[in-house]
């Protein structure tokens, strides 16, 4: 366990080292300032604007911005859906894989457009190389760019005064993809290839014994699935597969890639609002919750499964074995790296896995599930994590304002009824999708037939599925057969509600704040850069999560944990 915590601390140190230069760089990119990449990519950016017939400097109101985001994502959905239905007649299909069923194609297209990457299929046995590259990998970039654009629009709303515009959606989408996601993905892909991840268009290898070894353009998809907090694996085993993550160093690269942009965006926020302390305060709140969750998961998995204690099973760490609960984990990673990965991927809306969460101890599995249910705001997805946390910040200052009897303010903008209504909608809609979806599933004969374990564990499988989809995480608890029409359509609805039920209220808040005047700080203003505000923010996030989901968690992982004692 000591080695696990050394690894955890090393990860946090490296993460801050990456975020400090990356955050201000992203701010410069999104504000249209010149960077070291502009001599190479600037002409391409201008060419894209000419091709689309737009001006990158033209401002949009929040409704026009929202329509642009909606249209962009609708076109992406159609493209991925059609590609899956036609893949049998298209090239780069060495295994001659046919078209996908309509319900699975619908679920997958929604999944990748919403940055969820829930997979009711095995990539290497279902998707052609062309579908993986042109459909899924492209959406990994574009869905991440969508959330970055929405975040920047919200920040502009906080910064601008008496302005009807919150930026240009097409310019924000282009810049985030061209200057941030593409260059970083190229670097990460090369690092992964250097460690043994494969990248080719070769035919699958069929051995004399009948074994089939899948090939493909793996490293390029893995790079953006991590960096864009997408999570959909080229292989069914995801990041546990040695062709995706061959060793401990590649595993570390995966984990750093997941958190790199979400952590950096906190510092981007600080730079854009011209008060770096604001960004550090939000980053501190995220880190506090993350470390708390990581501590519980690491301890629970290192301790092992209490149900095995009466049996002749050795779970003690020695020089010959890692010890702890090794079920569903790769020996090359052990309980420490798997616990860290699970906490990272569920804090972010990534969903990639290097071990099976279904095989965690009940307490160890509860933490990733609860992190998802908090709204993916503990670092969270690229862009979506920070705009989700800023919604909780608005709730926090509103509560603070009520306590001192004055209109709450955040960064000089008064937070009034409209902002609180929109924030409440954005926080409650995904929660409703989770709880209603789970309740409907456990009452459906077809849905319950897909559960592999009856009782509390089976309930957790269903609860995890709807939590993962509604909060756009995409990881699966395992053991649940989701590839039936009920789950393919039901989970797709949850993904749409969880994605756009948050994006549109966030843009409405951005538009409302942008039109307001700046209000100077007074004696009753709650400072939002202090340790006190960090504590308030952490408290609001945890309180909302506890009140919303504790009854459901009590029926699943909590009941299962108590049954082991």
Description:
The protein has helices at residues 2-30, 38-52, 62-86, 102-113, 123-126, 129-159, 169-194, 218-227, 248-272, 276-303, 334-347, 362-373, 384-404, 417-442, 445-448, 456-470, 485-514, 531-555, 557-563, and strands at 205-206, 212-213, 409-410, 413-414. Helix 4 (102-113) packs parallel to helix 17 and helix 9 runs antiparallel to helix 10. The chain has a two-stranded antiparallel ribbon. A two-stranded antiparallel sheet has the order 3-4. The model has no long low-confidence stretch (mean pLDDT 93). By secondary structure, it is mainly alpha-helical. The chain is globular, with a radius of gyration of 23 Å.
Question: Which keywords apply here?
Answer:
565 residues, mainly alpha, two-stranded antiparallel ribbon
Measured as a percent range, the helix fraction is: 55-70%
Largest β-sheet summary:
2 strands, antiparallel
Question: Which outline best applies?
Answer: globular
N-to-C series of helices and strands: HHHHHHHEEHHHHHHEEHHHHHH
Mean pLDDT: 93
- How many strands appear in the DSSP assignment? 4
H/I helix tally? 19
Strand content: under 5%
Q: What topology, given as strand order, has the largest sheet? A: 1-2
First-last Cα distance: 23 Å
**Cα radius of gyration in angstroms:** 23 Å
User: What are the low-pLDDT stretches, counting only 5+ consecutive residues below 50?
Assistant: none
Overall SS class: mainly alpha
Indicate the topology:
Layout: H1 2-30, H2 38-52, H3 62-86, H4 102-113, H5 123-126, H6 129-159, H7 169-194, E1 205-206, E2 212-213, H8 218-227, H9 248-272, H10 276-303, H11 334-347, H12 362-373, H13 384-404, E3 409-410, E4 413-414, H14 417-442, H15 445-448, H16 456-470, H17 485-514, H18 531-555, H19 557-563
Antiparallel strand pairs: 1-2, 3-4
């Amino acid at each position: 366990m000591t080695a696990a915590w050394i690894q955890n601390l090393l990860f946090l140190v490296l993460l801050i080292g990456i975020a400090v230069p990356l955050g201000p760089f992203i701010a410069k990119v999104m504000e249209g300032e010149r960077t070291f990449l502009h001599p190479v990519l600037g002409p391409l950016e201008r060419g894209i604007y000419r091709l689309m017939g737009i001006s990158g400097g033209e401002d949009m109101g929040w409704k026009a911005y929202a329509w642009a985001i909606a249209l962009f994502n609708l076109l992406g959905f159609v493209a991925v859906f059609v590609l899956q239905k036609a893949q049998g007649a298209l090239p780069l299909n060495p295994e001659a894989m046919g078209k996908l069923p309509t319900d699975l194609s619908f679920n997958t297209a929604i999944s990748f457009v919403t940055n969820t990457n829930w997979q009711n299929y095995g990539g290497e046995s279902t998707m052609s190389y062309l579908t993986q590259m042109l459909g899924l990998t492209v959406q990994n970039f574009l869905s991440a760019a969508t959330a970055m654009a929405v975040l920047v629009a919200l920040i502009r709303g906080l910064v601008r005064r008496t302005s009807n515009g919150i930026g240009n959606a097409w310019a924000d989408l282009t810049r985030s993809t061209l200057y941030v996601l593409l260059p970083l993905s190229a670097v990460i892909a090369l690092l992964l290839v250097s460690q043994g991840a494969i990248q080719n268009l070769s035919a699958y290898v069929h051995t004399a014994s009948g074994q089939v070894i899948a090939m493909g353009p793996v490293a390029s998809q893995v790079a953006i699935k991590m960096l864009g907090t997408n999570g959909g694996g080229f292989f069914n085993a995801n990041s546990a597969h040695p062709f995706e993550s061959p060793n401990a160093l590649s595993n570390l690269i995966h984990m750093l890639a997941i958190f790199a942009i979400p952590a950096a965006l906190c510092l981007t926020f600080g730079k854009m609002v011209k008060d770096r302390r604001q960004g550090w305060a939000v980053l501190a709140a995220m880190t506090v919750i993350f470390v708390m969750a990581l501590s519980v998961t690491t301890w629970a998995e290192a301790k092992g499964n209490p149900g095995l204690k009466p049996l002749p099973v050795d779970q003690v760490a020695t020089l010959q074995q890692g010890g702890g609960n090794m079920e569903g984990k790769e020996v090359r990673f052990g309980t420490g790296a798997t616990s860290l990965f699970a906490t990272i991927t569920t804090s972010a809306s990534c969903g990639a896995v290097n071990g099976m969460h279904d095989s965690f101890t009940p307490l160890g599995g509860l933490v990733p599930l609860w992190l998802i249910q908090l709204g993916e705001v503990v670092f969270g997805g690229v862009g979506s994590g920070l705009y989700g946390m800023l919604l909780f910040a608005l709730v926090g200052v509103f509560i603070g304002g009520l306590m001192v009897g004055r209109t709450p303010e955040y960064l000089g903008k008064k937070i009034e009824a409209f902002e609180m209504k929109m924030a409440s909608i954005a926080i409650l809609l995904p929660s409703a999708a989770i709880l209603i979806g789970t309740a409907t599933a456990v009452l459906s004969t077809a849905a319950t037939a897909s559960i592999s374990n009856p009782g509390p564990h089976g309930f957790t499988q269903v609860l995890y599925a709807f939590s993962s989809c509604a909060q756009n995480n995409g990881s699966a608890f395992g053991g649940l057969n989701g590839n039936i029409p009920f789950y393919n359509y039901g989970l797709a609805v949850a993904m749409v509600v969880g994605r756009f039920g948050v994006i549109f209220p966030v843009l409405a808040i951005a538009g409302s704040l942008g039109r307001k005047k700046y209000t100077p700080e007074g004696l009753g203003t709650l400072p939002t850069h202090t340790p006190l505000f960090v504590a308030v923010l952490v408290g609001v996030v945890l309180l909302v999560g506890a009140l919303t989901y504790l009854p459901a968690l009590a029926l699943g992982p909590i009941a299962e944990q108590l049954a082991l004692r």
